[in-house]
Specification:
This protein is 0% helix and 39% strand. The protein is mainly beta. Strands 1-2-3-4 form a four-stranded antiparallel beta sheet, with no helix packed on it. It is flat, with a radius of gyration of 25 Å.
Length: 119
């Protein structure tokens, strides 16, 4: 990015409008131009009031960095997780009013690996 322009256009010509606009400068001089990427996805599935399943996954490329950072972390990370919540009493043919019996399962995993710059 070499140029950034920010402005406000007043569409009401007869109104007195005042205020402030703050723009933060982007410090990208000397940044690593190697393309990087990252993603996050999550979902939740509910089967009536018996079972709920949640899942998520995320991955970050070693060269991914925010605009405020000059370089990526050089760490490739992959994360995923799944959880399930089962209401066992909904499966029993006997009505047990006032009782609660739930089974929960959760699993998460995080893998990180360092990528050298090759210099």
């Amino acid at each position: 990015m070499k140029f950034l322009s920010v402005g406000i256009h007043n569409t009401y010509p007869f109104s007195n409008l005042s205020g402030e606009v703050w723009v933060n400068e982007l410090r990208v001089i000397g940044a690593d131009n190697t393309p990087g990427w990252a993603y996050t996805a999550s979902t939740s599935i509910k089967f009536a009031d018996i079972l709920t399943v949640n899942a998520n996954v995320s991955q970050t490329d070693p060269y991914f960095h925010r605009l405020s950072d000059r370089f990526g972390s050089r760490i490739e990370s992959r994360n995923w997780g799944v959880s399930a919540d089962l209401d066992v009493l909904k499966l029993l043919p006997i009505p047990l009013t006032g009782s609660n019996l739930r089974v929960n399962y959760s699993r998460t995993e995080c893998r990180k690996s360092f990528v050298s710059t090759g210099n």
